[in-house]
Please model this.
Amino acid sequence: MRTWLVTGASKGLGAAISRVALAHGERVALCARNLEIAKDLRDAFPDSASLVTLDLADAGSIGAAVRT
Model:
């Protein structure tokens, strides 16, 4: 099992990539500025999905997300 760090996981392509990876048994760090939108995806895969706050415009946020 691999761990994916997916940016923009709250909607669009990021959410679609996350959903497919999770459906195939992978672990996914769902990264987004607004985690409220991604909670349904985390709740659907509680053992393999985690929510991580990430704002790509904030260098400190990037480092914190990778460490998480």
